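Key idea: predict the complex, not the pieces.
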Amino acid sequence: MATRDITADSLLDVERSFGDRLVYMGRFLWRDKGGLIGLVMFLTVVFAAIFSPTIAPYDPLEQNLRDSKIPPAWQEEGSWDHPFGTDNLGRDIFSRIIYGARVSLTVGFFGVLIAGGLGLVFGAIAGYMGGRVDESIMSVVNLVLSLPYLLFVVVIAAILGRSLINVILIFGITDSPIFARVTRGEVLRLRQSGFVESAVSAGATWPRIIFDHILPNLIGPLITLATFEMSRMIFYEAGLGFLGLSVPPTVPSWGNMLAAGRKYLTSAPWIATFPGLAIMFTSLGMNLLGDWLRDVLDPRLRRARK
Amino acid sequence: MQRYFLTKFLQSILLLFGVLLLVFFMVRLTGDPAALMMSREASPEQLEAFREAMGFNRPLYVQFADFLSGAVVGDFGDSLHFKTPALPLVLERLPATLQLAAVGLLMAMVIGIPLGLIGGFNPGSAIDSIGRTLALLGQSIPNFWLALIMILFFAVRLGWFPSFGRDQWHSVVMPAFVLGLPVMGQLVRLTRSAVLEIRSEDFIRTAYSKGLEPRIIYAKHVLRNVAIPLVSVTGVQFGYMLGGSIYIEAIFAWPGMGQLLEQAIGWRDFQLVMAIAIFTSVIVLILNLLTDLAYAVIDPRIRYGH
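Result:
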């Protein structure tokens, strides 16, 4: 069959050119509609975040008390001047949602970058060195992973105070053990695999083994994990915002909007509805994308999917 | 078996020490715990008096030894807000949180596990699609937002359930459902993929080929093996719910530890916050230990020490 040769192995085949692999990836994507939808949803949010000033019809901070609490356009008193309505201070909700994507994606992206970087380094050291080093790194990892995660994130955020940098650092550091654990497991598996052994016996130096044989094989599982973790961070950041512990209250973030909208739940429910839908949209897109990436990049999990 | 349990027990003790260390340094992250715990208007003299009273100007190791010897006998100091010992205040809130998490977990299991089983045995069927959609939504819907929407519809508009508090018998329904939703999604996914994986194992094929009835194969070979990952995830998720109930308890004014944590943060009562963090961690550690024990009982491979 023609589709037979599009396998996960051909995707990750180092011998193939990068362009070839992209084509395979594209064909894979087309066959799996869930992954395609997820990618489109995710790219929509990225697009909104990058081009916020162009897309948003209003300044997200501009208050207009005379036009406060206008309902969304499809309700009777609404108008298309404010498609999603306005909040209690008369700020345009649509514009604030668009700008909110910036906060969420910034936290998610840099959070995962820090978590992934730390996790990769410590996980690889633990897996490669073994022995005492492995034991001590993994005991810290197990400590953090066995704690009630959300509770500690909330408490640390409350102690450090509201700022974007703090939120990114909190998620980046507290989430790194998961990356470390996955990296370590993969490195251990790879070290015992035939091809690394034969590379060692052929006299390859250790940087070569790490960069040519181990790192390329780590990319698949780590990218998949990164997608899920980024979605989780966006989710939790909004949660922190909801409790008033994330970015400062003046910043238009989805969590802050939810927190503000909660007070007007009965009189103006749309203020809290739209930021929630935005979080759900982003999270749904990233989970679909992550599921698809896991199927494509991790051949060992494909069997369970049939 | 005994040795396995003893190892796990000693690990928990070590983790407990790690938790205490972490919590101790957490409130000192900003460098000045007195400024953290006092109101912003406090004068330098008041701060100095507070430091003196709390012993913050002693060397760190003395403070830690003091903290440790108190924590071992359950003395977490006095709450700054209530001026009474912190631990009884936390214990008082424990039943409400346990009830909420237990009912939530029960709802998640009753809905999630059957959906996962049916989906795993009939992949691609209508019920499988429902289960997978629910799993995806459970992961993607921010539950603190869903809580607001449910209050709006089922409490304010329809009046079916009370919107807050714990006074009526059906008060628990909405908060428990919302708290259990992400767990429900996870259980559907996990059960489904476990069934799919085990169905393709060699021993199942052997069971079929020796002419066993499908009913017996499901009950004896498939379900028993599905139970193993389920037990471990259920234990971990229960701990997650105890730590993650802060949002849900805050929204529904559910008088549990999560609500107390939210209030304590608002009062800057970090003595109480520390007590809650430690106490919740201890419960989670005990839960993990019980899960490991249950694991050994179910899985003969661990029982016989392989």
